[in-house]
Design a protein that fits this description.
single chain, 260 residues, alpha/beta, D-Maltodextrin-Binding Protein, domain 2, 2 domains, five-stranded mixed β-sheet, 10 helices
């Protein structure tokens, strides 16, 4: 499937660890960005070990997944950032041993509705102008971003504050992690964001590249210009060669000690 095309081979290596688990149920939760990769791996794993394991994959966001993992509610958690010190402390407090491994590179896509005929590219500075905390209640229309844009409502969709995607986006675009306006439609489920943008003519949203790739008939990807350079579209190639720069360094999978 297209959604798992970025470094899928790295994720397939995880299945060898799962087979060592003595239990019949393997519970997984965490990042919606990593979900397409892990869902595909889980399907292949259950086919290979048919009847021996049942794998459930939930989506509660990176932060929510770490909370569940460190409380012992799940066996593995997917994350689009490394585990934080306070999350690690919760694992230690509850006697949860773990290892952390890289799974895949990701690309963060910016997209608008296909009926949007005024945006052909955006700069990082323009994205910051849309999303920074100071924009709340002040930047409400497209023509406030660029004079040539129409006087239409700017409707924003993005990852929720419990998401590693949100952490990365705010750091990369605004310059401060967890710093953004609050008056946007937020969700830990990227499919909700995709549908919001697909159904709202004046919308703009951000989400993992896999969700753009799976919904190209519903979305219009936006090339991004960095420091005055030529605008670059997100793709597997541009993410790997570094010309598209909204690329989290690694998406990580955190495993419990029984998976060593």
């Amino acid at each position: 499937m297209k959604a798992v095309s970025i470094l899928m081979s790295a994720a397939l290596g995880v299945t060898a660890s799962w087979s060592a688990m003595a239990q019949q149920m393997v519970r997984i939760d965490g990042s919606s960005t990593v979900f397409p990769i892990i869902e595909a791996v889980a399907e292949e794993f259950q086919i290979e070990y048919r009847g021996n394991y049942r794998v459930t994959v939930g989506v509660s966001g990176t932060g929510g997944g770490f909370k569940k993992f460190c409380r012992g509610e799940v066996d593995l958690t997917n994350a689009s950032r490394p585990i934080r010190n306070e999350e690690m402390a919760l694992c230690v407090e509850n006697g949860i041993d773990f290892i952390e491994m890289p799974v895949a590179l990701d690309a963060l896509a910016i997209a608008v509705n296909p009926r949007n005929d005024w945006v052909d590219y955006l700069t990082i500075a323009e994205l910051k102008k849309m999303w920074e905390p100071e924009a709340q209640g002040r930047i409400n229309n497209w023509n406030q971003i660029r004079e040539s844009f129409p006087d239409r409502a700017l409707e924003l969709f993005g990852a929720g504050a419990d998401s590693g995607t949100y952490d990365y986006f705010t750091q990369a675009v605004v310059g401060r992690e967890h710093a953004s306006r609050g008056d946007f439609t937020a969700s830990e489920d990227d499919n909700v964001l995709v549908m919001g943008v697909a159904n709202t003519t004046s919308a703009l949203g951000f989400f993992g590249f896999a969700y753009l790739d799976e919904n190209r008939n519903k979305l219009k990807p936006i090339p991004i210009s960095y420091q005055g350079g030529a605008p670059v579209l997100p793709s597997i190639e541009t993410a790997k060669n570094g010309t598209y720069q909204l690329v989290p360094a690694f998406v990580r999978l955190c495993q419990c000690g029984c998976c060593r």
